[in-house]
Design brief:
The chain has three domains: 161 residues, Alpha-Beta Complex (Conserved hypothetical protein from pyrococcus furiosus pfu- 392566-001, ParB domain), CATH 3.90.1530.30; 55 residues, no CATH class; 63 residues. A hairpin with a 2-residue loop joins strand 3 and strand 4. With 305 residues, it is an alpha/beta fold. It is built from 15 helices and seven strands. Helix content is 53%, strand content 11%. The N terminus is likely disordered. The termini are far apart.
Length: 305
């Protein structure tokens, strides 16, 4: 009786790849193919034999950062191998590590260390997206598009996607909502003209024209996330709430700031403080008290007695 071939052990992988292959719905379908191929591992592979990854989620690479990586590779070599799949003899396709791949070419290397994996197109997409999300400095919009592709092309629900990328459903949903913003705002997020915090505040405005107005004002006035949140909050409030006596005529951002100061004063004095202000930064502060003891308590806080 012929001896059974020992089952090859899996090569050590990063958390993203390991978790992905373990959970992949395609795993059973690929067991037969995997058993027929040589044991996976790390090999020195010629750069000329490696094709770029058609599923690469990153659309922009910083040239200066890429040059710095190339200089480091010239001196130190590649510390972390790239990951590829074998298409045929002398032909491989990149799964993850495109920055290292491109920088290695810039550094003049002929060969690079690479993990050789077996993967079908769906696994290629999953591995490329997940590895990039976990290991690369993708901007918020690139992450959102990656999540969208994983859900649409790999038939994943938000809960399943969250498990694969190590994020909860709320975080995944926050990224997905960014794709509902107008193209101009998405471009600003991609180009780092605004942050994800700005975008998350703006998306709470339903009217697209108003979204664009806030976006343009954010850039022109270099507004902080807090101030954008204040603009959105004021815009979403009803006209009756915006026309209170103590803040009538104030800029929405200024009104929000006055409200926050009033809350802090009330908390500090343990009393419902009233703070009124006008457009010229004039106003008054009222600190009510309910008894002589209460007055003394407030005076002690003011360090008057």
């Amino acid at each position: 009786m012929a001896d059974k071939k020992p089952t090859p052990k899996k090569a050590a992988l990063g958390r993203g790849l390991g978790a992905l292959l373990k959970d992949s719905p395609q795993k059973e379908k690929n067991q037969e193919l995997l058993s027929e191929l040589p044991k996976t591992g790390i090999y020195e592979i010629a750069l000329s034999e490696i094709q770029v990854n058609p599923f690469q989620p990153r659309t922009h690479f910083d040239k200066e950062a890429l040059q710095e990586l190339a200089e480091s590779i010239r001196v130190q070599g590649i510390i972390q191998p790239i990951t590829v799949r074998k298409l045929a003899d002398g032909e491989y396709q990149l799964i993850s590590g495109e920055r290292r791949f491109q920088a290695s070419k810039m550094a003049g290397l002929e060969k690079v260390p690479a993990y050789v994996r077996t993967a079908n197109d769906q696994q290629m997409l999953e591995m490329a997206l997940i590895e990039n999300i976990q290991r690369e400095n993708l901007n918020a919009l690139e992450i959102a598009h990656s999540y969208q592709r994983l859900m649409a092309e790999c038939n994943l629900k938000q809960e399943e996607l969250g498990e694969r990328v190590g994020k909860n459903r709320t975080t995944v949903n926050n990224y997905m909502r960014l794709l509902k913003l107008p193209p101009d705002i998405q471009a600003g997020l991609r180009d780092n003209l605004i942050s994800m915090g700005h975008a998350r505040a703006i998306i709470n405005v339903e009217d697209i024209d108003k979204q664009l107005d806030i976006y343009k004002r954010t850039i022109a006035e270099e507004l902080s996330v807090r101030k954008v949140e204040a603009l959105v909050k004021a815009l979403n409030e009803g006209p009756e709430e915006r026309s209170t006596e103590k803040t009538q005529g104030l800029d929405p951002v200024r009104k929000y700031e006055i409200g926050k100061i009033q809350q802090r004063l009330s908390s500090h004095f343990g009393s419902k403080v009233q703070l009124k202000a006008d457009g010229k930064n004039k106003g008054e502060i009222k600190i009510p008290f309910g008894s002589a003891d209460d007055l003394n308590r407030i005076l002690e806080i003011l360090d008057i007695i």
